[in-house]
Amino acid sequence: MEKIILYTDGGSRGNPGPSALGVYIETLGKGYGEFLGDKTNNEAEYSAIVSALKKVKSLIGKERAKKASVEVRMDSELACKQLNHEYKIENAKLQPLFLEVWNLTLDFGEVVFVHVPRERNTLADAEANKAMDAALKQPNLL
Predict the structure, then answer these.
(1) What share of the chain is helix, strand, coil (3-state, %, to 5)?
(2) Which DSSP helix (H) or strand (E) runs through 62?
(3) Closest of 59, 85, 84, 90 to residue 71, by C-alpha
(4) Where in the sequence is the domain holding 74, given as residue range(s)?
(5) Total tally of structural domains belonging to the chain
(6) What is the tens place of the pLDDT at every residue in 67-116?
(7) DSSP letter for each residue of 72-130
(8) Residue 53: phi, psi to the nearest 5?
(9) I want to staple 81 with a disulfide (CB 3.0 to 4.6 A). Which of 27, 28, 44, 87 is the partner?
(10) pLDDT of 141 above 60
(11) What is the CATH number of the domain that holds 122?
């Protein structure tokens, strides 16, 4: 089974506030960020996971995805524990994002969610910060 390792991060400046997601797909050597507008930090974290799974599927194709094992590494302990069924999702805004992630996992052979320390998630964090910085320099995006 092909193994794909990716890192995700979401952040907001203020909670809620201007936010962005960052993704680094280690196996493919690709990273990107996207400005999200006004969101909480946890909404941004989940949005990063959703975006990463969609991007991997689009890059490798449906057939390869069905046979792939994806390891999603994140520094959000909350999102990781919720996705691993250790914590309940009580925040109403996170519930649809959780369901979207869960549905996306069905596109892959296996998806594993792993918590990593912040210092091991610097590439995804940098992508999120780049996207946020670029948007904050253009007030019309806010």
Answers:
(1) 50, 30, 20
(2) helix 62-66
(3) 84
(4) 2-141
(5) 1
(6) 999 999 999 999 999 999 999 999 999 999 999 999 999 999 999 999 99
(7) EEES-HHHHHHHTTSS----TTHHHHHHHHHHHHTTSSEEEEEE--GGG-HHHHHHHHH
(8) -65, -40
(9) 87
(10) no
(11) 3.30.420.10
